[in-house]
Amino acid sequence: MKYVGEAPQEELATGERSTRNRVARSILDHGPSTVADLAKRLGLTQAAVRRHLDALACDGVVEARDQRVYGARTRGRPAKVFALTDCGRDAFDQSYDSLAADALRWIAETAGDEAVMAFARARTAEQSAAYRAAIEAAEPEARTEALAKALSADGYAATARSAPGPQQGEQLCQHHCPVAHVAEQYPQLCEAETEIFSSLLGTHVQRLATIAHGDGVCTTYIPRSGHPTPQTTDSASASTAGRNPA
Questions:
Q1: CA distances from 20 to 4, 25, 30, 230 (A)
Q2: pLDDT the model gives residue 86
Q3: Quick one: average pLDDT of 61-86?
């Protein structure tokens, strides 16, 4: 990754640049992170992490925000986390956004929105072959984790974890989306992705947050059999497939 907004190369020592890039990459891979999270993952002091975050923030690569909470909120102020900005994400593999958006715009103008949806479904169906094989090879209780690993192989930096609080299910978190900028304009890409997740896992799924909608992570809730989907926070209450793109 080339350091975004980088000062002239001679002004930034190689070691400093490398560490700064590691901080940005860790946020990409794990989503919005606290100073303590980053220090633990990278083996740095919190003071060192803050120094690198300050530099990244000055260059528009990261921004501080209140930690988003799903489900019941606890008392006290939310923890402060650092997330990549659009500029920060651009340092990773989004160089073909303009071409992809132009192609989808042409499809929409010449054949209509239904054709864009057909393209999105065909694209995700082709991608899903490898995902399906990984899921079918896994035990039922490990299928979300298998999907996360398959998505990570395609650049989505995905993880699976138990849903927080009283929710009975799992959360599939995509910490990076190579098509996020295009999905802001064409939510059909997200709707098709949500549909394929449901098909692959054999259950209804619900989007709780998305990168393209301004969240730090695309989060999909997968309920355990027999349990309803959770009540979402106000910011995610309208986050249904096709309306809150990933």
A1: 10, 9, 16, 37
A2: 79
A3: 75
Neighbours of 132 (CB within 10 A): 15
The string of DSSP codes covering 1-55 is: -PPTTPPPGGGS-HHHHHHHHHHHHHHHHH-SB-HHHHHHHHT--HHHHHHHHHH
- If we measure between CA atoms, which residue out of 8, 34, 12, 14 comes closest to residue 23? 34
Q: How far is CA 206 from the centre of its chain?
A: 15
Q: Is the dihedral of CA 5, 11, 15, 16 positive or negative?
A: negative
Characterize the bridge pairing of strands 218-223 and 169-174: antiparallel
- How far is the C-alpha of 84 from the C-alpha of 88, rounded, in Å? 5
Single pTM value for the model: 0.60
pLDDT tens digits for range 138-158? 999 999 999 999 999 888 989
Residues ≥6 apart with Cβ < 8 Å to 146: 134, 135, 137, 138
Digit-coded pLDDT (tens) for 5-51: 444 444 445 667 788 889 998 998 888 899 999 999 999 999 999 99
Q: How confident is the model at residue 127 (pLDDT cuts 50, 70, 90)?
A: confident
Question: What pLDDT score was predicted for residue 224?
Answer: 81
Q: Which two tokens stand for residue 165?
A: 């609080």
Calpha distance 159→147 (Å, rounded): 9
| Nearest-10 Cα torsion for 16, 79, 72, 203 | -10
In the numeric block, which tokens belong to residue 188? 């059909």
